[in-house]
Each structure stands twice: as structure tokens, then as C-alpha cells.
Queue: 3 jobs
Job 1
Amino acid sequence: MSENALKVTFSPKLTPVRPSAVETVSSDYTRADRLAVWKARWGINRMAYRVKPGLYALGSPAADSPVFASANYKLSFDALRTNLNGLNAWLLVLDTKGINVWCAAGKGTFGTLELARVISETGLEKKVSHRNIILPQLGAPGVSAHKVKARTGFSVVYGPVRAEDLPEYLRLGRATPEMRRVRFDFSDRMILAPVQLVNFGRYMLPAAALLYLLGFRADAAYTAGALFAGGALVPALLPWLPGRSFAVKGAAAGLLVAALIALARQQSAVQFAARALIYASAASFIGLDFTGASTYTSLSGVKKEMRLAMPAQALALATGLAMLAAKGFLL
Amino acid sequence: MKMEYLRGVSTLKLDAAKCIGCGMCAAVCPHAVFRIEGRKAAITDADLCMECGACAENCPAQAITVKKGVGCAQAVRMGFLKGTEPDCGCGDGSSCC
């Protein structure tokens, strides 16, 4: 057990911030931290990854040391402290109910009022001689810099989107345009795929197992295939799947997998057509849900897409099932 | 990757008359939707906007409006079922985002 893992506490209950108690943390990234990240991504006891809100000392900060704000989600806090290796700094952790900075900012829990509360309750103004706080840029949807200034006297400075850019940001004294933009690269997408696979696999894998046991082996394969298409292929192939709509991308991935399964199992055209309608609509539904993980979809866009996609998915599913039923009666 | 979602849906509006050219919108936007030209902010491509609301929240001149929300199908579904605004439900005991 590393010293660090002991010092960063994961409290399931919220503790009031005490001005007197400043805990010290290290910038080390340990094996325990790595395991915690993996578990969090697969949704294993996900909500246990809370850091106690309050003020932390990284190294041995002085009155003129910089102040960085973060969320009380372990992955957010770890990203901050490990990227400030070798620096003496104050880390101000907001109570975001264990949610990461960007999502919490969207909900307003990483917000103006909470920042003002933590500044005041930790007695930050007595700990530092300057009046600047560096926030992650993705905290901006919840924080109004000019209102924080008016309430607390502290100036909010938006740092880079990614904590890994902090050393370069501090060296330059400003963020480059590249640091200001979110990305959604292959690795960014794939670390979020397990969330989808767990969410839908919970229902679809038992369904596939049941179909297999009942003798519907092709449908067991199609069911698992739809989960794979919507949950793994959509994230992996997002830029290359056709269309801008996530529902269309999901349907395309579903059709591709369904076609491969039909080829492998040498299914007839009618059998394939019915399955393609059913399972592509399932993959489309899962693909549409990946909008929640994406870094660029808007609410207006998702609403528009859902108005068109949901009826289309329902219609495709009904048509496919009707075809199978008709075939059953005919044979 | 190129991050272009559906065209012509964003609710982002900029009132250039109110803009004081402070550059906060350009600093906080994660998709470089704004640029500052001639001491005024300008929208480069509204289709890149994800309606996160960072610009409007940090505009001291209240020159920007946008209907802020999460672009998440699950949130829209939950909001529809519960009769509330779209909410990703990432609260206690949930495992979202």
C-alpha cells in the first residue's frame, strides 16, 4: 500500500471543509491509482472514487504558490496532482459529488457558488498572498469568472483542457490554441467504450445466452454482434462510419456485423433482411447513446436526431419481427 | 478526428453590439467557435458549437446566449420519461459520464 493511497481519502459521505486541516498529497501515480482508474471505467464501485473536498498541499507550498482547482472525482484529482510533479502548489477540491470536472460543470456542481464556498470555507485568502486560481478550462460551463471575482476577490484563470498540458502551460504562461480544444481521438473514445458495453451488455449478454440455450444460435450471435457493433465499433470507427448522426453510424456498424454473421452462417436473403432490420436498429440505439460520451454533440442536435431516429428504429424493429413471424407461419 | 455534428441546430447567438472584446469566450470554448477580430468576438462556425454554455457563462457583457445542455441521448430520454429537462442523472449511485 503506497503512502499516497492512504493520504487521498475516498469518503462516501461529504465532510465539511475545515480551514485548519490541510492534507498533503504527492504527485506520484501508483499501481493502486492505475487499478482504481480501470475499475472506475468498467463501473466497478464507480461512485467510491471520491476525494474529500477542501484544500490540499502538494509538496510544500508557500503563500505565493499557485492554486489549482479540481473536482472531487479521483480521476480528475489524480490527473491534476500527477501532472504537477515537482511543483509546490495548493489544490482546491470542489464538492462535485464524485463527478468529473466537465460533467459537473455542465450540471453546475463545479460552479461559481461551490467555488466561492470552498474558497471561503478553506480560508484560502489567508493561505496565499496572491488572488489567482487556475481552473481547468472544462470547468468554464459552470463557473462565471467575473462573478467569482465579484464574490471572492479571486481571479479565475482558465488553464488548459487537459491536465497533461499543465507543465507546458506553466512554462509558456498561457494556453496555446491546441491546449484549448477538446479532442476525441481513438484512445479518448475507447476508454469510454466499456461504459456502453457494461450498460447494454447487462441486458444483451443474458439475452444472447438465453437465445443460444433455446436453440436460436444465429440470433444469439446477432444479439452479441449488435452489442459489439453499437458499443465497440461505433467508438472505434466513429470518424469513418457514414453520416453525422450517431444513430446512422450505429445502424451502419450493425448492418456490417449482421452481414458478416449472415455470411458466416450462410443465411438466406429473407432471414438476413429480417435480422438486419432488428439488430441494426438495436446497434443504432446503442450508437445513439454514445452521444453522451462524445465531446462534441449538442443538446439541440441530439434532440433533432432522436426525433427522427427513435421512430425509425421502432419501425425497423417491428418490420423485422413481422417478417420473422410471417416466415414462421409460412413454414 | 474532425468533430462535426448535425448542421444548423446550434442555439448560439452573439450580440456584437454588446461585445467588449475581452476574449473570454475564445478562451473557454473547447471547439474554437470564436475568434477575436477588430476587438470584437466573431463566430467562426456555429455548427461546431456543442452548447456547453461556457462562453455565455463567462461573458461579462452578456453578449452571448445559448440554450445550454448536455448532448446525450440517454439524458434526453431520462428527461422525457421523468418530465424534466434533459439531465444526465450522474448523481448519487449513478454511473453515467
Job 2
Amino acid sequence: MNTLTGVGVSPGVGFGTGYVFAREIPVPPPGSRHGGDAAAERERAERALEQVAQDLERRGALAGGESQKVLEAQALMARDPGLAAEVAGLVEAGTSASRAVYEGFGHYREVLAEAGGYLGARVADLDDVRDRAIAVLEGLPALDVPTRVAEPYVLVARDLAPADTALLSPDAVAAFVTEEGGPTSHTAIIARAMGVPAVVACRGATAVAAGTPMLVDGASGLVRLAPPAREVEAAREAAAARRSALAAVGGPGATADGHPVTLQANIGGPRDVPDALKYGAQGVGLYRTEFLFLGRREAPSPEEQEAAYLEVLRAFPGQRVVVRTLDAGADKPLPFLTSSDGEPNPALGMRGTRLFQVHPEVLADQLTALARAASRAAAQVGVMAPMIATAEEAVRFAAVCREAGLPSAGVMIEVPSAALRTADLAAGADFFSIGTNDLAQYAFAADRQVGALTALQDPWQPALLDLAALAVAGAVVRDRPCGVCGEAAGDPALACVLVGLGVTSLSMAAASLPAVRAALALHTRDECVRAAQAARAAESAESARAAARAHLPGLGGLGL
Amino acid sequence: MPERQVTVKAEVGLHARPAATFVQTAAKATLDVTVAKAGGQPVNAKSILGVLSLDVRQGDTVVISAEGEGAEELLDRLADIASAP
């Protein structure tokens, strides 16, 4: 295998020899005990944590800027009195200092991970502090990444913490490749800030032999190992061409022959609005409201919700903003909604709108808050229901929306039964939006959270395209618009295919908008239709991708 | 016990930079000081992990409490930090 695939999170092309940064701190085994002198062991733990705090502060002072703030916050974690008390208690009971530090952090780790979003991303910071303290206690060498080098290298790691990257510069690092992490992980943020290409969630990256030349494409997520010189040259030229080509296309989305396609942003709250505006989103195709609710013991008040909705709506006067009602359950449990006694198959259980059967007050509050916000802003508000499986459910949801004073109610198409019967669902849906991620999960019986099944999550799977085509066909019969708001919409080639299937709007992460806009502007609607037919005629995801690209000649010129 | 009730205005809530400044200021004081979300369980205001765990968002109300010599001044400072936009 000479190509690895991950998720591109910082565009551009980087080339250099691979440096695999392994900071594997062994987990202190459960039940590790100290020799008996609890007071001495406790002091050892305290000294280790203080040493880590000082080291982090020193690095922060050297790095300055945003990094310094992050590292100082980490130093505060190392000196946390709550943590110190937990560690002391564990050591008092006989646990070794290393294990006590490990367990002491464990509790907070869980709380942050559960909160998700910004706090979830802090888990990596916390783990870094913990691992550094354990390394001190176990006498392990403190590993650091090289900062002074003759030639920039490709930094490969499982994941990177702020302390690892604080002293790095683009002179030292040509690209980042990590096995873990996502678009909001520390590696992604620091790479974008440095203007260095990065690929995260790249399986197999740390198994690459040290010194292997690597060509990293931070847009496509492809990592080529030991590529020929001409390929490196071509990749660099393509990256330059893409930058200028993308910059040249602006305005509302349309195909080369002027067929309009509304290009919108997926957002999780007011925080994502500036990026959506910067990349020229024509409104919001998916406002995920669960970020308001996650990590809460009780639902946010209607007033708090109204403020958050209003802030988003006011940013898009005259444009469409589609708000998805709370989609909890499965991978996003909430204490006040989901039951804690565990369902055998949470993804097939009480999630999305199904929860509102048990807790109608949560939906009522949300719709009230949204209707109030809508009355105070000039955006065209649509409400969208997640996890609808039947027409009855759609009709019931639409009725509740209208009662709350929200006239435009739509349905997410993510359950295969809904995709097959959009014409029936139209009785309770003014519009449809295909959620490709969940639709793939349910069509292929492949849990999104099981890494080993990612191939079945490939949105190019012809069966998934068939379901999308059927959903669009049913919507057309009833004269309802049908968009796509899953990851698939942000893939420029797949975006053309979806338009070829008859999709009327595409909603994606804001940063994907320029490439999708440029790809559509280079192809006629006919070319998109032919690409879609070719993809559906294929028998595998891989051949569907290749067959579609053969009908989309403009993509090569964009370096996509 | 002296306390201050303030609404968090920063877009990032009491996370990131505001949380660090808040905890650093609290940690410099010798007296005990706690912070809670309105109606919630208080946590040690000198604990960054405790404060982050509260997950205070923009628009949330927090209650900061302290008792002893200099409590009023400290609470004023902390209230200013928590309510800064």
C-alpha cells in the first residue's frame, strides 16, 4: 500500500520525509500499589505534576501567542486542586502515584468528553498533561518533536497536543498526518493557523517507516508514500492552480449552464456563522441544535434557546435557515431525555424525533423558542425533523410545527424507509434533506462509530446513490425540494453527482463551499446527470467514483 | 455568605481564556471561593477542571460565593471576569 487515506483538514500540498512521533505512555495497570509510605508517594505525585506545570509554562513563554494561552491553561490543569485531592485520596488508600494520576484525570476526562464540542476537544490537552506526569513518575524519557531541521519534515503521530506543536514553525514541518483527531482537533486548528497542510484520522500513518518520503494533500486527505519526483511536482502545481481557480469563482451556486444549486453551510451554533459568511453560504441547510443541549443536566430554557437561534437567524436576512430539532440519543445521549439503562441498539432505539413521543415538552419548548426568534429576524426559517421513518411521523411533526407558528416543516431523509417513500412523506413535509451519513449507517447496517466498518460508510456506494435517487424522484412527483446535508455534499465530485440526481441544494461544512462551487461552475447539468448515471451503473464505491469522474473533466483542472 | 450572580457574556462562555483567567485570579486568593451554575452544585473556583466541567455557555448565569477577609473585593473581580464580553 503506497497511499494512505485520511481526512484533509488544512488544504495545500506538503512534501518531506516522515518523522513518526510516538509518545506511547503505558497505562499504569489497575491495582498498582505503592510501597506503603503514602506521604512520600503523595509528595512524589505532587512534585511530578508541578514539574509538568512548570515545563508547560516554560514552553508557553517560548512559543508566545495563542499557544502560550493553551499551555498556561494546561499548567492550570496540572496544578488543579480538585485533581490533587483525588490523587491524594487514592494514594492514601494505597494506589501508586502513577495509577492515582491516571485515575484522577479519568473522571474529568469523562465529563469533558461527554460535553463534546469545545470541551470534548480539551480531552487531548488533559491526556497530554496526564501522560507527561506519568512519564515523570515512571522515569520515561520526555519525547519532543524536532524543531530545528535542515529540511521541513512530515510530522506523523497518533495525535498531537498543544505542548508538542507549540515550538513548531512551517520551516520545520511540511505537513501533519495523524491517526486520530477530526476537523476540530488541536492538530487541525494549529495546522490551519500555521498554513501547513494536514490530514487527520489517517489509519496506518504511524506504521510508516521513519524516513519515508511522504506527499500530503491536505484537501483530499490522500498521503502518498515514496512518490516519484514528477508526482510531487504535479501535486505542487495542482495546489497552486486550485488556489487561484477557487478564488476566481464566487456568488450563488450554479452549474456551468446556469442551473441554480443553493449552496449552504452546516452549523452547530452562532460560533460557526462567521465561517459560513466568509465562504459565501446561501443560508444554512442544517443547524444542528444539539450542541445547545449536550453536557446539560436539564434542557436549556426557551429564553436561552431563543437567543442562540436569533443570533444565527439575524446573520442570514432574506436567506433560508433550516433548523433541525434536537437529535439526541444513540451517540449523543442526554440525561434529561435518553434513558440511562442502555438500549441494546441505541442507533435503532429512541433517538431523534422518537424521543419527543416521551418528552413532547422538549420539542414544544424548542419550537416556541424558534418561532419567537423567527418573528424577530428576516431569515426564512425551516424546521427539520431527524429520524423520520413513516409518513404518519412526518404529518405529526408538521402539525406540531404549524401549531407553534412555524409554517415550513421538513424531514431529514436518513432512514431507508423514508428514502423509499418521500412521495408519501410529502403529506407532512414541505422539503426534504438527505443526511448521507445516517442513511449509509442504516442502509448498510454499519454503525458509524465502528472504525472497522468505514468502507460501508463510503457515500459513493452505489446503493446509497440509488436511495438518494429514489428520494429525489419521490420529492419531484410531489413538487418538493430535496437537498443533501451530509458529508457527501462537501465532496466536489459527489456534489456534481448529487446535482445530476436532481438534488436542489447542498449543505456542507463552510470550508468545503469554495471547491464545490467551483466544481459545479465547471460542469453543465447534463454532465452532472451523465456522471450520476455512470456512478449508479457501477458496482462498487471505488468504480462509481472513477466512473463519475470520467464525466467531470473540470475536476482535474481544479486539482480535485 | 457574600455572593455575586452574573450572566456570562463571552461568546466562548466560561471556557478557554475566560476560564483560565477566572481560575488564575481565584487561585491567588487565600480564601475559599466557589462557583456554580444558577441552581447547580458549586465547584471550587480554583479548579480549572471543575470550572470547565460546569460547561458554562454564553447566556448562562453563574453564582460566585466566598467568605472571609477580602471576599467582597475578590467577588467583584471574579464577577467582572465572568461577565466580560
Job 3
Amino acid sequence: MDRAAVETRVLRVLRWIVIAGLVVVTLFPFYYMLLLSVRPIDEVLQNPGRIWVGISEWTIDTYREVLTPSGSGGQGFLKFLSNSALVSVAATVMTLLVSIPGAYAVSRLRFTGRRQVHFLFLSVYLFPSILLAIPLFVLFTRLGLRGSLIGLTIVYIAQTLPVSIYMLRNYLTTIPVSLEEAAAVDGYSRLQTIRKVILPLAAPAVMANALYVFMIAWNEFLFALLFLVEERADWTVSLGLAQLSGGIEVSKTVLMAGSVVLTLPIVIIFFAAERLLTEGLTAGADKG
Amino acid sequence: MAVVHEPATEPTAGPSSGRKPLTRRQLENRAGLAYLSPTLVVVLVVVVLPIIWTVVLAFQRIRLVNLRRAGLFDNFTLANLELVLTSPGFWSSLWTTLIYTVGATFLSIFFGLIAALALRGRFRGRTLVRASVLLPYVAPVVAMTFVWNILLSPQFGLVNDWGARFFGWDRPLAFLSQREYTMSLFGWQVDVPLALLTVIAFEGWRYFPFAFLFLLARLQAVPADLEEAARVDGAAPTQIFRHILLPQLGAVIALLTVLRFIMTFNKFDDVYLLTGGGAGTEVVSVRVYEFLTARFDIGAASAQALVLAAGLVVLLIIYLRFMAPRVEGNED
């Protein structure tokens, strides 16, 4: 047998081993999280190595403790969930409102400084967010925005705008200019053209973008920690969960139930729209 | 990258006579700036001005208590920088940051490449597997660090339990709180920075899907007949990878290296949530946070953050200058 044949055979087997390995490595932590969240804590401490328990042994006390309002002795995650949802949806809508015209300008219009705009965007990611955190902490304290969800939303908009514009721009450049010219001939103004011609065509990219912003806002931790830690009523789920782990009398299984509550919405959204998101994020990357 | 299409208006935009109405070019310029202005305002107010302010703060002795009275431009001093550069543990934390960044960047791209190659061809359930592989990247960091924490716990962690049961470990390993672990390897005693390696592994696990996504997109754009021709000529799979796929991937790998390097270098939450910066994993961004929240020393925290950003810029320049394989191909 020659080298090509040997390698092809070896790789055929190896490929399946790699695929199986990848699936286990990525999914197992999620499975373990789910499993621990329904096991009683003393049973976990006795048998840490079990990876299967029968349905009869399951408990939902952990979820009850996590979701019950703090007034009634629980951890109040329902409130945190609504805070997170509020911030994430607001950030998503605002980012799209700002980035759609921005992306259109960058992809279609010639204006002074168009080439330099990218350097400005780069600055968002080049500097550590902890560096931005210090002046924003001071600024928002002075404006009275620090303990509020509004301040947090503004930060998330700024953090996601550059990627958002980049993704949309890549998509907009694939829409033929002739369509716009036809619209112009029909007497559409530029804004009308964007609304009636460009937006419907760019709908997949806009959706992907919305998902991206939502995920970033939902998952974010540092700014929530810095801005909101003193106001329990304003905590997001990420922050609530992190604070929960510092509590003394919180068992690990309750912590895992909280993790499931935090992760589940994102996973559901992700699987519902996975194709949109992956294609939107890498649009243009394949042109290398 | 794609050429940006321009509306073909330029030739008609000649200078007109009389009351000098705006040319189409000028109108376009105005519209462009107008459409982009909300973005510019947000980025300017929430990003650029804070950066400039940090630079100013870094040269003033300001603590949280005297912040209100402090003027924006008085009492410049180098005391913060001196404090930061001479404080114990600064250089070692910069070194830790560098090892952490290089290790995590390499791991995430390496595993991303393997995953992209393995999941490239068709098989049953491919869509589902591809989506699952992305999960570590899209899931919330707080939840993921907690799961790892529990999995690796010395008291009730699955890894230590299985290690003892199936591999005969004589004592549990404290993956996230042990600075050095002495391993005997072929009779040699080797000190392994256990916690740091664990944090790097976590980072590789969490971000390989990011690399996977970009590499897969690029792989699928490689013309199929190129590979087919090589196969007909009797090239082995590794030869096809080395001589056909890898050259095509070069630009994306270079771009990914820069992106992952920047993001990991500045990373705060992963390390903070996993170890709190203890056990030899204190990266600079965690130190900045400590200065800010434990000592309320805004000046020193700013100086520290500035040093971090400066370090990143220097490393990026070195990389782009000397090591990047034709990154220019990615600029448009």
C-alpha cells in the first residue's frame, strides 16, 4: 500500500475518534451542569463520580430555591432574569438602530475619514475593558447612572457596535448597487431605499446581528459587577450567579441550578438560529 | 476582501455654475457623516474619551475619596507609574499574562483547526455536531467557570474522583488553587504551574469554537477541484493539507492569532472567576481590578491599565512587523 492509501485509512478512523472526542469535550460540562442541578447535595458529596441518576432520585428543590423571590427566602433569580432580558433587548434594539445606518454609510457612501473609521473601531477592542471601566465608573457615578440598568445598556451598545457594523457592512457589500439605482430612478430617497430595499434584503444579517448583540449583553459580567454590585434589585443573572457563589450557605447544586437558568435561554436562542448566526459572523471571512 | 462598491455618481458630479448648489459628491459626504454620526458619538463618549481620561488619571494621584475635588489637569506626577512598575509582583504578573495569552491563543487555534478539518466533510448529524461544538463559546462565562470549578474540585469533583478510581491518583489535585505541582517524569522532578495551565486549558476550550468557525468558513471556500487534482495525482491527505489547504488558511490563521491575542491579553472575567487571580494566575487585568476595588487607588489602577495597553501595542507591532504571514491581505 502506498502512503496515500495508508493515510486515508488511518484518517478515516481518526476522524471519527476526533468527532466523538469533540462532542464529549464540548457537551459533557453542560450535561454535568444539568445533572448536578437535579441531584440532592448530600448524594453528590458521597458519590461525586456518578454521571447518571434515575429520575426517581431527581429533586427540583434547587430550582425552587433559585427562582423564589428573595423576600420569601429564595435567591430571586426571576427578577434577575427580567433585568437581564431588559438590558439585553434594549441593547440589541439600540445597537441595530445605530449600526444599520452606520454600516450603510461605511459600505456605500464616500465621506471624509471613511478609511480612518476602522482605527476608531479598533480602539474599542485594543484597550482592555477594565481600562474603560475606570473612567466610566467615575463618569457614571457623577451622572447618577452607575447603579442603573441604563448605564449598563449604554456600555453594551458601545461594546458591540464595531463588530455589528463590520458584520452588516460585509453583508451590504454583497447587495448589488444596481438595485439602489433602480430605487433612486423610481424616486426613492436614500432613507426610503434603506428601509424598503436594503433592509428586507439584509434581514438575515440583521437577525444574526441581533442575536450576537443579545448574547454579548446577556453573558457580560465585568461591567455588571462594577456598576451594579451595590443594588441587588438591579442585578443581572450573570452577576446574581457570581454573587451567589460567594454566599456561605449556598450548596453547589443550587449554584448549578442557577447556571442552568443563566445558560438555558442562550442555548435555546442559539439552537433556534444557529445557522443565521454562524453565517453572519463569518461573512466575508471566506474571501480571505 | 471584497471591494466596496460605489454608486456610479462621480462623473456627473461636476462643478455647477451659478448659486453653487451642493454637488452630489458633497451631498454624499454629508449623508455619510450623518448616518455614521450616532455611532461616532457613542464610540467617542463611551470609548475614546474614557481612554484619554485614563491616560490623564494615570498621571495624577487620585483615590476614590478625593475624586470629586480633583481638577482634570492639575498635579501631574509620575508617582503612579513608579508605584506600579516597582510594586512587588508586577513583572511576574506581566509575564503570567504573556504566557497565558500565548498558550490560550495557540490552543484555541490549534483545536479550532483540528475541529474544522474533522467536521468539514459530510456525515449524518453534521449540523447538530457543528452547533454543539460552538456551545462553549456562546454560553455565559459565569456558568462555564462554575461548572469547571465543580468538575475540578478536589473535594467533590468528578475529575479527581475518576482520577483516583481509574488512574490510581494517590491524592486529589487542586487544579485551580495549586501554584506548583511536582511531577515525576521519567525519573525527573518537574514543577508544573498547575493552576496557570488549567486556566489556559479553560481558555482554549472556551475559544476554540471561535477559531473553528472562521477556519471552517475558509476551508469551505477552497476550490474542490484543487484538492481533487492533487488526490488524482496520488497525494496523501497530509500532503494535501500541507501544500494545498494550509497555504489557503494562512491569512485567516494570522488574523485569528491577532484577534485572539488581543482579546486574551485583555481578558478579565475568565481568570477572575476561575481562580480570583490566585495560585500564580494573576494576570494584569485582575491586578487593575484589585487596585480599583480593594485599594480604591484610581491613579495606580489607571497606570496599571495603561501599561497593559502599551504592552499589547508593542507586542502587536512586533508581531505584525516580523512574524505575521502577509496580514496585509486582510486589510481592505
